[in-house]
Amino acid sequence: MSAFLAPIHYWLYNKIRYVIQREQLIYQRAETLCGGTAEEARAQAWQSYGEPLSDTDLTEHIDQSNIHGWLQRQINVAESREAAFVQALVDNCGDAAIDTASKAFLEHGAHCARHAAAQGKYETSNAPGIYKAINDYYLNGMPCDQADSVLESSADKMVWESDVCLQEPNWKRAGADGKMMKDLYNTWITAFVSILNPGFTLKQTAITKAGSITTRYEITRV
To answer: Rounded to 5 degrees, what are φ and ψ at 165?
Structure first.
């Protein structure tokens, strides 16, 4: 990767910032649930992974001598810290914290969808346009990871598969329950689609291929 900042670097940085923004929303909702215990859980996650990046321009943070490495590290840190925080909430505040986190993921997915709609640059009347918007807001590894394999693309339907969950190693590193985190992420993406265009639905299916689990996503016009 070149040693200067390009639009793709800002694109990825913005997606990292959405995860940081969501972590803050989870904290706000959890504080209502269990008060100071939520703050202790957040402090625990911050002690392990550092405090979130301040909301300043990318040039204020990035190591321009190692752009690729810095961005990859920030993905790992943001996803690990969020997962560690959610798991600490569940451990210390009980199962009600899962519902609280789910509501925060749903709310944030809806918020991002409204932000995307306000940009006026997405063809939200068709499935490929919705898919493009998802990829501009949903943090799913580095661009070179190419986790998605598109199977079908038409105005009324978009189908893609992913045979690897790029977030899972970070969830595992954080000691978080993988199924819980996957359910939370699915809540986010489902809310994003339903708010961006209520005329479409998102369906997710687990498929076994060659002994491994592949997730198939379908955006379909209602």
So the answer is: -95, 105
In a domain, 69, yes or no: yes
Q: How far is CA 88 from CA 11, 48, 101, in A?
A: 30, 12, 12
Q: Which residues touch 8 (CB under 8 Å, ≥6 apart)?
A: 143
Look at residue 36 and tell me if it is in a domain.
Answer: yes
Domain count, the chain: 1
State the residue for tokens 């978080």.
176
- Residue 168 maps to a domain: yes
* Whole-structure pTM value: 0.94
Phi-psi region of 141 (alpha: psi -120 to 50; beta: other; left: phi over 0): left
Whether the CB-CB separation of 108 and 22 falls below 8 Å is answered with yes
- Per-block mean pLDDT, blocks of 10 residues, the chain (222 long): 79 98 98 95 97 95 93 98 98 96 98 97 97 97 86 97 92 97 97 98 85 88 95
